[in-house]
Structure formats: C-alpha cells, structure tokens
Amino acid sequence: MFKSFVSKFFTLYAALTLLTFICLTSFITYVINGYFISDKSDKLIESGRIINEMYLLEDINSSYFRTAINSMSRAYGSRIWIVTNNGTILMDSESNKLSGITFDTQRPNIQKAIEGHHVTFTGNFYGLFRERMITVIVPIRYNNETMGLIFLHAYYPSITNATNPFFRVTLISLLFSLVVSIMLMYLFSRRITKIFQQMNKTAKSIANGNFESRIMIHSNDEFGELATNLNYMAAELGKLEEMRRGFIANISHDFRSPLTSIKGFVQAILDGTIPPENQDKYLNIVLNESNRLTSLTNDILLLAKLENNGITINRTSFDIHNLIREVIIQFEQKIIDKKMEITILIDEKAVFVDADRQKIQRVLYNMIDNAVKFCGKGDRLTIETTKYKEKINISIKDTGPGIKEEDIKYIFNRFHKADRSRGKDKKGTGLGLSIVKEIINAHGETINVNSQLNKGTEFVFTLTLDKGNKMYR
Ligand SMILES: Nc1ncnc2c1ncn2[C@@H]1O[C@H](COP(=O)(O)OP(=O)(O)O)[C@@H](O)[C@H]1O
Ligand SMILES: [Mg+2]
C-alpha cells in the first residue's frame, strides 16, 4: 500500500485529517463541558442563595423549610445538605439519610467556604459518592459571619454522552466532514495515480523508441504542462531519430556508389578488360572517387570534433578578399556549365581579418557550393563584403529556389536536407551548413540567413578585422 507516492500522500492526508478530527473533538468537548459546568454551578449557587435566605427566616425544623428544600432539590436535580461549621449534617434532602453525621472540615475547599466564599469543585466528595459529582458550597452568612454551610451536589453534567444533543450534533457534523474530506482525497489521489501511470507508460514507450506515443492529458495545471513538455520532447526525439535514420541511409548511399565504381574499375584493370593504354583514364576516376570518400569521411569527423569542442581555431591575419577569389575559382567551371551569372562586389584592395584561414575557406566553399548546386540556368550568384566598425560582413546571395519558411530553422542542423528525395542533389549529406555554423560559432562570430521560396537565398556572416593591419584598410 505504501509503495506509490500517491498512496503515501493519501495515507498522510488521511492521518492528518483524523488527527485534526480528534483534536477538534477534544477541544469542542472541553469547551462545551466548561460551559455546562459553569451553567450548572451558577444554578446551584443561585438555589444555595435562596436557601440561605430561607434559613435566616425560617426554623430549620419546620415542615415548611423541609418541603421547600425537597422541592428545590428536585427542581435543580441536586442533593442538598445543611451543615454546621464543624461538619455535622443537620439536614439531608435525600430522606435525611446522612443527618447527624459529621465529616472533616479541614479540607481547603470547605475552609474556603467557611471563610465566606462560594466554592465549586468536582469529584466524588472525598469518596462519599460512587459517581463523579459537581459540588457547590454556599456559606450561610449573617452579620459578616458564617453560621453554617449549604452543600449542593449534582451529577456531573455528562456531555460526552451520546444523548447530549449538543455533543451529538457536533460529533455528527465533524464525522461527516471527516468522511467527505477523506473520500474527496481518495478520488483525487486516484486521479493523480492514473495520470502518473499514463505518464510512466508513455515515457517507457518513448524510451523503447515509440516516438509517436503521446500523453493524453489536457488539464490546465502543472500536469497538463508536464504532459505538453513530454509530448514535445517525444516529437523532438522522433525528429532526431528520423534525421539519424535518414543520415545513415544517405551516408550508406554516398559511400556505396563511389565504392562500387572504384571496385568495378580496379577489377576491370586487373582482369584486363581495360587495356593498359586506357588505364590512366580509369585510374583517375578511381582517384577522384577516393577523394570524394575521403572528403566525406573528413566532413563527418570534422563535425564530430567541432561539436565536441575538440578543434582549435588557429587565428592568423589574412586577406579575406583574396581567399574569396580563390574559392570562386574552384567553382568557375561549374558556373559556366550551369550558365549561371556571377557578380563579385568586393574591393580590389586587401582586407585583413583575424581568423582561421583554412576553416573560413571551408565556410565559403560550403556556402558557394550550395548556391551553385541549388541554382539553375540564368540564376545569379552575388558575393559582397561590407565593413562595419571592427567587423566585415560577407554576403553570399543567389536567385535560386529559396528555402521554405518552415525549413529555415532546421537548415543548420546536422543531416538536414530540405530535399529529402535527393532528386536535385545526390551528393549532399546535409552536413555542409552544420560545419559552417560550428566554425562561425567557434570564432565567436554570427551567421544569418534570409530566404524566400522561389526568390533566392542570402547567407551573411561576420569576421573581425585585424587591427594590426590598419595600413591595408
Ligand atoms: N543556397 C541555397 N538555396 C536553397 N537551399 C539551400 C541553400 N543552401 C542550403 N540550402 C538548404 O539547406 C540544406 C542544408 O544544406 P547543407 O547543410 O549544405 O546540406 P547539403 O548541401 O548536403 O544538402 C540543403 O539541403 C538545402 O535544402
Ligand atoms: Mg551543402
């Protein structure tokens, strides 16, 4: 029973409610008791006063006095004694049973009465009665002197008795609220248990790779929020998993096709299908394919290292304009083949920046590669630099197909390729922009993208000018 948090919580709650119930009942009993006792004692004192007056007017042995005492005793439900200061009972309302008996008056309560005070106390009157009584002593006063004592004994008002309506109503309403509150708590606990069970089940299912599992809780409280977050997490994990699978499929494909052609050509050379005079041509293809594999492997390794902060940025001062030209030259043939147009808006003058030349080369290469790859005939590629304060902005802009708005936030993610069918771009691995982003981040610089579907794309990144080379600016 104590295994789950909810049952612990419920047990604690029930125990606390029960404790409150017990405390409240005791307190209320105590208060009501006090009220009944003081009420009873007031009444007894009142009747004592009347007897006091009668005593002073009437002869104690007269039948009138006796009758009056008897009716008073019945009316107030009390036993009345008239006692001398020495403790001799002169009259007992209960058929004079104890008349003539003397008891010890040295007790503090009795002494106090002899001194002239009203005294109220409870108990069995020093062992005389079998039950608990409330006893009131009223001194008979005349000329400032105590002439005797009036004792009034009544049964102790028993309020914890179930017949007492006061007590009954209180107890029943308390019991009712106790039961209702425990029942409500029980229902609430059951609901929470169900929520936890569902979350647990879903979390396990997600852990087992079922990323479509969702928690069906739509409340507006913290549970609803937790469910929404868990569902969001499952969706993100699902996307990641889909990306991973896509990546493995792409990678396998990217490795298999060059390997197939390498294997085919090498076999053909070995078994003489390709005559020695043609071998150079095919060996060159083999070399190109091997280079492609190497660069793919390097990309994967580089990205892994960049992501683990395992790569240091070797900052040097170099001319960024020169580097841009160098990279563009590598794409010259492709740009001509695709009948694209190119505009280069960079200064003739050298502009020195403080960065890792090799890695920035990679950044430029990956971005221009994308532009050239995704653009078609007649599209324009524009490369522009602008200095701003201690920075230089480098913009690579094309009039190509653009990127869908919902895709823009993913393009820097590993393995993300908008064109999943890989129809347009068989070589892409979806790693290019991730590498770009990691390199720019490692430099502490920023990169932004603006793109509109069917209009074109612009990437802008910053580099820091080299202050030591002011003369070239
Ligand atoms: N210049 C561009 N024009 C249109 N889409 C682009 C451009 N650059 C990047 N993208 C989109 O971003 C995706 C990720 O680019 P990248 O990381 O370089 O991977 P890959 O080039 O291997 O596809 C591309 O698949 C493409 O959908
Ligand atoms: Mg690319």
Sum up the structure in keywords.
473 residues, alpha+beta, Beta-Lactamase, Helix Hairpins, Heat Shock Protein 90, 3 domains, five-stranded antiparallel beta sheet, five-stranded mixed beta sheet, 10 helices, 17% strand, rod-shaped, binds adenosine-5'-diphosphate, binds magnesium ion
Write out the distinct hetero groups bound to the structure.
adenosine-5'-diphosphate, magnesium ion
Report the average pLDDT across residues: 88
Describe the global form. rod-shaped
Helix content bin: 40-55%
Please mark out the parts with pLDDT under 50 across 5 or more consecutive residues, or reply none: none
CATH class of the largest domain: Alpha Beta
**Quick one: CATH superfamily of the largest domain?**
PAS domain
Q: Count of DSSP helices?
A: 10
Membrane topology: Multi-pass membrane protein
Transmembrane segments: 12-32, 166-188
GO molecular function: ATP binding; phosphorelay sensor kinase activity
Keywords: ATP-binding, Cell membrane, Kinase, Membrane, Nucleotide-binding, Phosphoprotein, Transferase, Transmembrane, Transmembrane helix, Two-component regulatory system
Question: What is the fold's blueprint, element by element?
Answer:
Elements: H1 5-57, H2 63-76, E1 78-83, E2 89-92, H3 108-114, E3 119-123, E4 133-142, E5 145-155, H4 165-207, H5 222-270, H6 279-307, E6 316-319, H7 320-337, E7 341-345, E8 352-355, H8 357-374, E9 380-388, E10 391-398, H9 405-408, H10 432-442, E11 447-452, E12 456-464
Parallel strand pairs: 7-9
Antiparallel strand pairs: 1-2, 1-5, 3-4, 4-5, 6-8, 9-10, 10-12, 11-12
Bound molecules: adenosine-5'-diphosphate and magnesium ion.
Transmembrane segments: 12-32, 166-188
Membrane topology: Multi-pass membrane protein
Catalytic activity: ATP + protein L-histidine = ADP + protein N-phospho-L-histidine
